[in-house]
């Protein structure tokens, strides 16, 4: 009995949703301390007492559960993820609503759903409206949501063949494998603890590295911390309105750009899910496609820009061309990883080239998304790669009807039915896009607004709402029903449709 108490198994007996609630309650004391240092006692009290209330509720529920062990295994953990993204924001919104006191609770809930799903939809147009501690809280919630996805990808989604792993796994989506990896044959709760202890220090360390580099570049402390959290979580939350309000200029953008590579492929920080094929980054199809888009698309835009301005050959135009190229490359990387930061030179690039509103390009990048098992949203690069291979194979069969497709070394990650499953997910994504767009249009939004809002929420790229349309969409002007639909779309975009469908299995809801 004493050994059981001494082991971390006491905490492992608690439901995952309860543990996440307790961690969220403790995290409220960070902005409380920040506000206390700044002598903003009302904001500090809001966060301190909200965190204390959360800890009391968690303790009482834990005591009531006693020695009862969680049921349902990995599927129960998947249900806890749904709780984290849909229900927990109700609690996270309490200190925000109480400290702000100038908005409805629905708006606070919407903002917390946007943050924890790493969408980063900006409900508050004026950054000066929020206190510095509230900016810290929004970025912190987004950062914690990104960490949840880092850990859940390996501990929950990979064993269930979800989240993009259905393209490479040998099991059926939503069905837990007996032994997806040799070290994961035991209790899923122990696997979750082991992966958390492995990946959490990496995530925290990378965030600290971005923060220190931005501080060295001359950024303000709070802005540097919020941008560091937003880059690692791909939430795009900023206390100064994005990179245009940054004090570091192109140096700060270069630092942020380098750390966005972690959202292109999981192999940039871990090989824990590389069970088949190569575990080398240079052989990873996701990373290679990401590089092709990040550098290829700006080059195409640059060539178009340069040809359009070829008759004006001055040194100043050469400098503008280089700034335009950098602005294009940074913005493409940002929206491909669903971060949503816009380069300070992006507007210069558009004006110099005469390019109209490039919303369709940015929305297309956001739909593609980043790598599987990263904090990025979207369809994911691996699914796009599987569809590309399938299309290439079909074209080869048209030319050589009796040919047998070769098994190249780069294709070993894709299972036999991987392209079919990727196509099924793409169709589910398209159906979700259609349904949400029609619903928003029925609630009073125009076609363009409904389409932009749907793409932004399903791909978890909130800054698209301000950039993609001809005129920025004001979320405050939407009705309560429309905001509720967008909240559901953000949760759906973060968990993905296949994971939601997997929750309807009878094994989870029986008894």
Task: Give the CA-CA distance, first to last residue.
Answer: 30 Å
- The share of residues in extended strands comes to under 5%
Low-pLDDT parts are 1-7, 178-185, 310-315
Total count of helical runs of at least 4 residues: 23
* Whole-angstrom Rg: 23 Å
> Helix amount, in percent?
55-70%
**Molecular shape:** globular
Describe the biggest sheet? none
Can you describe this structure?
Helix content is 63%, strand content 0%.
Secondary-structure map:
Layout: H1 2-6, H2 9-12, H3 16-27, H4 29-37, H5 41-65, H6 73-86, H7 88-100, H8 105-116, H9 132-157, H10 188-216, H11 221-233, H12 249-259, H13 285-308, H14 315-336, H15 346-353, H16 359-368, H17 381-399, H18 418-442, H19 447-458, H20 464-467, H21 480-495, H22 497-502, H23 506-509
Helix pairs in contact: 3-5, 3-6, 4-5, 4-9, 5-7, 6-9, 6-21, 7-8, 8-9, 8-21, 9-10, 9-11, 10-11, 10-12, 13-14, 14-15, 14-16, 17-18, 18-19, 18-21, 19-21
């Amino acid at each position: 009995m004493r050994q059981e108490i001494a082991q971390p198994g006491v905490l492992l007996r608690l439901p995952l949703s309860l543990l996440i609630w307790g961690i969220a309650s403790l995290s409220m004391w960070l902005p409380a301390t920040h506000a206390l240092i700044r002598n903003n006692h009302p904001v500090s009290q809001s966060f301190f007492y909200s965190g204390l209330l959360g800890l009391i509720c968690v303790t009482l529920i834990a005591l009531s559960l006693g020695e009862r062990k969680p049921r349902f295994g990995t599927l129960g953990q998947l249900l806890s993820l749904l709780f984290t993204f849909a229900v927990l924001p109700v609690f996270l919104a309490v200190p925000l609503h109480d400290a702000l006191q100038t908005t409805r609770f629905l708006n606070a809930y919407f903002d917390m759903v946007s943050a924890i799903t790493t969408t980063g939809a900006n409900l508050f147009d004026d950054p000066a409206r929020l206190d510095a501690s509230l900016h810290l809280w929004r970025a912190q919630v987004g950062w914690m949501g990104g960490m949840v996805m880092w850990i859940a990808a390996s501990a929950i989604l990979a064993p269930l063949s979800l989240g993009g792993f259905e393209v490479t796994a040998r099991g059926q989506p939503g069905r837990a494998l007996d032994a997806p990896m040799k070290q994961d044959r035991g209790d899923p709760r122990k696997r979750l603890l082991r992966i958390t202890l492995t990946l959490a220090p990496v995530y925290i360390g990378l965030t600290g590295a971005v923060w220190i580099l931005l501080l060295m570049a001359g950024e303000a402390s709070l802005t540097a911390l919020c941008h560091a959290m937003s880059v690692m979580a791909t939430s795009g939350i900023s206390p100064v309105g994005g990179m245009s309000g940054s004090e570091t200029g192109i140096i700060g953008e270069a630092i942020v750009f380098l750390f966005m590579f972690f959202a292109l492929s999981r192999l940039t920080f871990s090989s824990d899910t590389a069970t088949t094929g190569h575990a080398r980054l240079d052989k990873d199809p996701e990373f290679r496609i990401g590089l092709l888009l990040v550098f290829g698309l700006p080059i195409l835009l640059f060539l178009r820009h340069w040809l359009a301005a070829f008759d004006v050959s001055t040194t100043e135009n050469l400098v503008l061309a280089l700034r335009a190229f950098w602005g294009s490359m940074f913005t493409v990387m940002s929206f491909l990883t669903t971060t949503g930061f816009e380069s300070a030179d992006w507007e210069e690039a558009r004006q110099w080239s005469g390019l109209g509103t490039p919303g369709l390009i940015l929305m297309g990048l956001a739909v593609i998304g980043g790598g599987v098992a990263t904090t990025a949203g979207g369809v994911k690069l691996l699914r796009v790669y599987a569809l590309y291979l399938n299309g290439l194979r079909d074209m080869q069969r048209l030319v050589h009807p009796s040919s047998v497709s070769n098994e190249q070394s780069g294709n070993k990650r894709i299972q036999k039915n991987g392209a079919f499953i990727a196509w099924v997910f793409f169709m589910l994504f398209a159906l979700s896009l259609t349904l949400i767009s029609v619903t928003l249009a029925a609630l009073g939004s125009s076609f363009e607004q409904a389409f932009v809002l749907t793409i932004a929420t399903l791909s978890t790229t909130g800054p698209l709402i301000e950039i993609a349309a001809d005129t920025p969409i004001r979320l405050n002007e939407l009705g309560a029903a429309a905001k509720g639909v967008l909240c559901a779309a953000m949760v759906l975009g973060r968990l993905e449709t296949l994971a939601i469908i997997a929750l309807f299995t009878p094994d989870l809801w029986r008894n």
